Every structure is written in C-alpha cells, then in structure tokens.
Amino acid sequence: MPPHRLHASVLLTVVLAAVLVVALGMWIGGSYGERRASDSSKPRNHGHSRAVAGAAAPHPSLAPAAALPPPAAIFTPDVVAKTTSTDGVALTFDDGPDNQTMPLLDLLRANGVKATFCVIGENVQQHPDLVQAIVRDGHTLCNHTWNHDLGLGQRSADEIRADLQKTSDEIHKAVPGVPIKYFRHPGGNFTPTAVQVAQDMGMTSIDWDIDPTDWDTATYSVGPTMVSQIVETVENGVQPGSIVLSHDGGGDRTSTVAAYEKLLPYLLQDKHLRLVPLPT
Ligand SMILES: [Zn+2]
Predict the structure, then answer these.
(1) How far is the CA of 38 from the centre of ligand 1 (A)?
(2) d(C-alpha 161, C-alpha 149), whole Å
(3) pLDDT at residue number 79
C-alpha cells in the first residue's frame, strides 16, 4: 500500500473511532438524562394523595434525593396559601370566639379594619353571639376544626370531613348561609389529606408568613414583654401580601389586643398597607 493510502486508512480509522466514541457518549448521556427526568417527575412525597403529588409536579427538581425538602414543604407552596397573592395584608385571628373577641372587634371597627377569624366549633357552640358579631362587622370566617385537634390531618379523609362539616354546621347555626371558604389546620399541621378534604368542601387552606407567637405565653407571659414581641415581629416582618397569624382565643389574649392597638395605626398610617379580609 502506498504511504499516502496507508495514511488515509489510518486517518479514516481514527475518525470512525472518534465518531463511535462521540455517539456512545451521546447515547449514555441521553439515557442518563431521561432517567433523571423521569425520576424527577415521580411523586416525591412518599405516599401522599394524588392531588397533592400532582400539585407538586409543576416544579420538578433534579436535586439529588438527599437534598429534597421534607414532604410538607413540597405541597405547601402550591396548595396551602401563605400569602394573599395581592398587595393586601390579611390579619387572621385564631382559636376563638373567646373572651378577647369582642374587645378585638371593637378595636378593628374603630380603625376601619376587616380581618379573618379562624373559629373553633366548640367555641362557636358556646358563643354564637360572638360569631354573629364577627359577621355583622364584615369579617371573613375560616374553619379551624371542631376542637383544635392538632393531629386531625393524620386521620382518615372521612374523619376529617366529619370534623370540618360539624364545625361548619355549628357556624351556620349561628350565622346561616354565611360563606366559609377557608380552612386552617390547628398548629398549621396541614396534611395532603386535610387539604384535599377542605378543597372538596369548597375551602382554601390558609397558612401564614408572619407568626408573632402570641400563643406562646409560656415564653413571653402576658403583659409588656408579649406586647413588644408581637409588635416587633409584625413590624419587622410584614409586607404587602402577608398573612399574619394571631389569636383571640385559646388563652389570655389581652396582650394580643394591646399589641394591635399599636399595630393597626402603624400598619395603616406609617406603612400604608391595605388590611383586607380574605375574599369571600
Ligand atoms: Zn389554632
């Protein structure tokens, strides 16, 4: 074979080998990519309900399994509202109606503010007049379960539905026909089943982004320390769209009312925020 033919032959072999290597590399890379993509599209919430797994699907992540957030965090942004999705700030008051509901209503009315009240069925049964006062002032109602069972979401869908229905029925005994479009799980312990049941009953699950821990009287007791804690946490954290968690029941909430005497003028006049009831 003449030297130039030999040279061409070697060159051809090298080129063919290179093409083979590139093709093999593309094939391996392609199948690897598909495998990753298909892994990421699988539900990652380990046996939670279909609807919630579906809700998490629009944001597939290629992060390795070890870096995944815990299951609750997967569905929370998509199914449980942490903000109002507007520039309006929603003040929400939980665990009533109770002895601080009326002073709080007076304060809200004096400042022209509408809020949202997440009421407990047993308290509604005891204080139907307070539920009527809440509605009369134009506030929004939210179902906070029958007796604040922190583990309700772990029960069966039927048990959860029965609890929420009993609560809504009790509310409607006091205020017939008033819309109940929101659900808040006690302690914020939402589960996919509870969120799904609430949704089936026409209720949006609402979380919060600001928690001034006014429930934690063990740490801050009742008085000026608690008032400062509430005022500072809300003032430092609130922004357009915030959902603020506070309590008008479940313990001595006089500090909460005292805090909002300072907070309402601050939020309205200093921060120029719109304080809105959740829409019904
Ligand atoms: Zn609560």
Answers:
(1) 40
(2) 13
(3) 73
Q: What does the pLDDT look like over 262-279, one tens digit per residue? A: 999 999 999 999 999 999
- At 76, the pLDDT band (50, 70, 90 cuts) reads very low
Question: Is a pLDDT exceeding 50 seen at residue 39?
Answer: no
Look at residue 60 and tell me whether its pLDDT is greater than 60: no
How many angstroms separate the CA atoms of 273 and 280, rounded? 20
Q: Which has the closest alpha carbon to 249: 151, 103, 113? A: 103
Over the chain, what is the mean pLDDT? 81
Evaluate whether 207 touches 81 at the Cβ level (below 8 Å). Answer: yes
Domain regions of the chain by residue span: 3-75, 80-270
Q: Are 40 and 60 in contact (CB under 8 A)?
A: yes
> Is residue 247 among the annotated active site residues?
yes
Distance 111 CA to ligand 1 centre (A): 25
SS3 label, residue 272: coil
Give the model confidence (pLDDT) of 130-139 as tens digits: 999 999 999 9
The Cβ of residue 121 has, within 10 Å, a number of other Cβ atoms equal to 22
Nearest to 261 by CA among 98, 97, 89, 109: 109
Cα→Cα distances 32→19, 21, 38, 41, Å: 20, 16, 10, 14
Higher pLDDT, residue 84 or 67: 84
Report the separation in Å between the CA atom of 119 and the middle of ligand 1, taken as the mean of its atom positions.
8
Residue 232, token pair as written in the block:
């500072």
Average pLDDT over residues 41-53: 33
Place of tokens 């503010």: 113
| Superfamily name with CATH number, domain 80-270 | Glycoside hydrolase/deacetylase (3.20.20.370)
Of the candidates 139, 144, 247, 248, the residue annotated as catalytic is: 247
